[in-house]
Write a structure and sequence with these properties.
235 residues; alpha/beta; Rossmann fold; five-stranded parallel sheet; elongated
Length: 235
Amino acid sequence: MHILVVDDDPEIREQLSRALEEQRYRVTTAADGRKALARLESCAYDLVLLDIMLPDMDGIAVLRKIRHWELQTPVLMLSALAEVEDRINGLDAGADDYLPKPFSMAELFARVRALLRRTTSRTPLLQAGGLLLDPAGRRVSLHGEPVELTAKEFAILEFLLYNKGRAVSRFDLAEHVWGDDYDPFTMSNVIEVHIKNLRRKIDTPGRPSLIVTVRGVGYRIDASPPEGRRAARQQ
């Protein structure tokens, strides 16, 4: 399960990330509303933990934008504003739950589990040709056979499949998969190694690669399967 944590306090982001990762969730963070919306525009998340007090646009505005986009991603609001009216405003804006600060991690985990239980059955499968990725179950199969991927390989493949048909830059891949914890001078080589390993695991010998290199940009998984691309070239 992939959770987006949105909070402008770096210490709180770090605490939440570490605690959720210890519970075996995958976590991406954003320090403000605009970054959060950019993340949500480019990737599917299973849950958003959204602070109300953000520096550029408050959490309510971010939440309204999410619902305006008709994203059904569950949102758990986190806020030091604990008045009943504040909770009502958050829920009326489209929040699925509201947790006032300070809170215990045990209660946070319980709320997270409850929200994820409601949405697990609705998580869409991602597919390209004979490749199938189940974000909720964190499983990948190729022509019905299971494919074992590392956590980073799974995250890269999921991001590419979510953006199927669009070129994804190396910068966007690095930011999504590694967050802020990456070296821009070496990341391009690191990504190339992961892509090479992915191709070795998911490509079929004698057929075009599922992952297409877009020169000068990054990578793309085409909307049509490799067989369709090869047939189109032969016509």
